[in-house]
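Q: Convert this sequence to structure tokens.
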Amino acid sequence: AGACFVCGKQGHRKADCPSAGKADGKQQSGN
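A:
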């Protein structure tokens, strides 16, 4: 436990995942 479920890496969580913020909505960023 403790692994980021967004990218699967450990050391951070979704709230701190650098790939979470915008990666969660690819269409949202890039109009």
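The chain is about 0% helix and 0% strand.
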